[in-house]
Amino acid sequence: KPKQYFIEGIFMQSEKKNKNGRVYPLPILEKEVNRYVKEYVEPKRAFGELGHPDGPTVNLDRASHMITSLVKEGKNFVGRAKVLDTPNGQIVKCLIDEGARLGVSSRGMGTLKQDEKNSQVVQKDFYLATAADIVADPSAPNAFVEGIMEGREWIWDNGLLREQDIERARENILKASSRELEEVKLNEFKNLLSKL
Length: 196
Hints:
Layout (H helix, E strand, L loop, with lengths): L3 E10 L8 E2 L2 H16 L5 E3 L13 E11 L2 E8 L3 H11 L4 E8 L2 E3 L5 E3 L4 E9 L8 E7 L2 E4 L2 E4 H13 L5 H14 L2
Parallel strand pairs: 2-8
Antiparallel strand pairs: 1-5, 1-10, 3-4, 4-5, 6-9, 6-10, 7-8, 11-12
Helix pairs in contact: 3-4
């Protein structure tokens, strides 16, 4: 079975001015995310593209990933997406393997209203087309995501972290007495980090 790749992190932020000068009020974003999750994420129809096209529609021939979850955490919406085995998905997998820092950017439509701080505030008619396209330069301040590879062995940059190392760490933690547990956990974590 081939390795599976995922991206996860903050997909969208509310109540915070982004690089495009836009602010998404939390109630508006939350209502629209809830609709998007119900209509797109749950029935496995929530796709995103590599790059950020102009139009509101997601082109399936350009899809690189499928969003599998989108959850509110404070004023942020944290997402997880599975990288697909499509041509654009292959590019994303290569970027993850090379240790690239990827960002995500949502795509939507709606009217904007300027407030007293010169921010463009997104209005109630906001419609979310996709929660996340993969981009090099996201507009939301913290919308950089972690590329994660799940498979038989874990490779990060030049270091090789093998499954048996993780398994051995897990066994040592399970064997530790409650008194030693914190120390053993810390040592095993340091040990795994030293292999990265």
